[in-house]
Automatic annotation (TrEMBL):
InterPro entries noted in UniProt: Flavodoxin_fold, Flavoprotein-like_sf, KefG/KefF
Superkingdom, taxonomy of origin: Bacteria
Name of the featured protein: NAD(P)H dehydrogenase
GO MF annotations, alphabetized: electron transfer activity; FMN binding; NAD(P)H dehydrogenase (quinone) activity
Pfam families: Flavodoxin_2
Residue ranges of domain Flavodoxin-like fold in the record: 2-172
Record keywords: Oxidoreductase
Length: 196
């Protein structure tokens, strides 16, 4: 089994439905995976850079699990990236992450229909991933196809909506686990399709 490190970038998993469910399902299915909850590790926002870098060095596969926030990473996860992925560690002539795999796993609040050339946003979800592609290229990481689920909003939650979001999150986690198990077994992945 390959070493899997999951970086959870949700700013408050104690008040999360989807991301908390996804991480719970992953922990149950892949008990050897290391899950690093940035919200509980760094409630004051002070990142232990050395601990984070050591965790990444042990990993063969790095998963970034997060809710899409303003079409990118949530604030704490962006801070983590800024402080941990520094020159000499993540990139540059002495970079240490080369050859590892990076998988983006995220949820969006808006439904998939808005992420379209004719939708409200005017772009597909993949169009917003170019900065991640550039980061992976700079750090010599192999960026895998993302696993994502659209339409998991934190607004207007009632009991039925929460149940629906938990179902979507379990389906998301199942897709992610399948990809990770496939990578561990064969070293390959197939394109993960987003859920509507």
């Amino acid at each position: 089994m390959k070493n899997i490190t999951i970086i959870s970038g949700h700013p408050d998993l104690n008040h999360s439905i989807a991301n908390a469910t996804i991480l719970g399902e992953i922990a149950a299915a892949l008990p050897d995976a290391e899950i690093r909850r940035l919200d509980s590790l760094y409630p004051d926002g002070k990142i232990n850079i050395l601990a984070e870098q050591e965790s990444l060095l042990k990993a063969d596969i790095i998963v970034w699990q997060f809710p899409f926030s303003w079409y990118g990473l949530p604030g704490l996860m962006k801070r983590w990236l800024d402080e941990v992925f520094v020159h000499g560690f993540a990139h540059g002539s002495r970079a240490k992450l080369g050859g590892k795999k990076l998988l983006l796993s995220f949820t969006t609040g808006a439904p998939a229909s808005l992420y379209d050339a004719q939708g409200l946003f005017g772009h597909a979800v993949e169009d917003y991933l170019i900065p991640f592609e550039t980061t992976a290229r700079l750090c010599n990481l192999e960026l895998l196809d993302p696993v994502y689920t659209c339409g998991i909003s934190y607004a207007d939650r009632d009991a039925d909506k929460i149940a629906q979001q938990k179902t979507q999150a379990r389906e998301h986690a199942a897709r992610l686990v399948t990809v990770l198990q496939g990578l561990s077994a064969k070293g390959q992945t197939s394109r993960s399709q987003p859920a509507a």
